[in-house]
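>> received
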Amino acid sequence: MDVPSLIELLGRTPTATARATGLSRMTVRRVRDGVSAPTIETLRELALAAGYDIDVQLVPVSDPAAAVAARVVADPAIPTREDLEGWGMTSPEEVQQIDEWMARLERHAGPDRNRLLELAGRYSAAQHRKGARFFAPKPGLTQQQTIEVANSALRPLSGALSGVAAARAYLGHAPDPGPVVVWSTDTDAVAERLSATMREVDEYQPAGVLVAPTMQAYLVDMMIPPDWEQQIVSPIQAAIDLYGLGYDQLADEITEGW
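>> returned
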């Protein structure tokens, strides 16, 4: 349950919610409208009034804005920060998120470009992405056949392949078994098509297919390499993704000499 739904459950007006929680009407209104982020104390009062409690857990981060932020810094195919708002590939909300991640990456990586990409991969890892769908490897399918199945499920929808598919395209080799990543702006549609061939499971499959939602900006500069029919993310996005998947050596091979 999200915060606006919780507030609506408690009362139709800020006054009713304030009466139920002991919070001020101004606080309720600002939290409901997304003007300010609620503190843990505020969230707990809202939850308790509705018969719930708060249980805070740390989970791995996976924010697409982190990858795009790194590309704003290091990828000539992505506009500079000053030009993002008029670019047409990012919403105002996404631009704000990218801004925040640019500041974080600058603090954590400094001027080291390789460290920047590595951290961006950790912060945007496909296997931790909210809304990701996982498919187990199908017995009898080779890695190349699995890539072709994933690509078939993707077409004609908006998206691109990454993971071992990108490593094979750019390096000519990849771990086998290894994960095929499908980035898409329509995850459910891709997953539905993929389920006709592969079995969906609840957890990440290092040898299977991972379908994950993403920003449209991820797909900038994607390629269809010679002798391939697949749409592959750009080399820099492939490196970021491989860092996030834990294949640092492959990512280093892609970025060697940059």
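>> Strands lie at 133-135, 159-163, 180-184, 200-201, 209-213.
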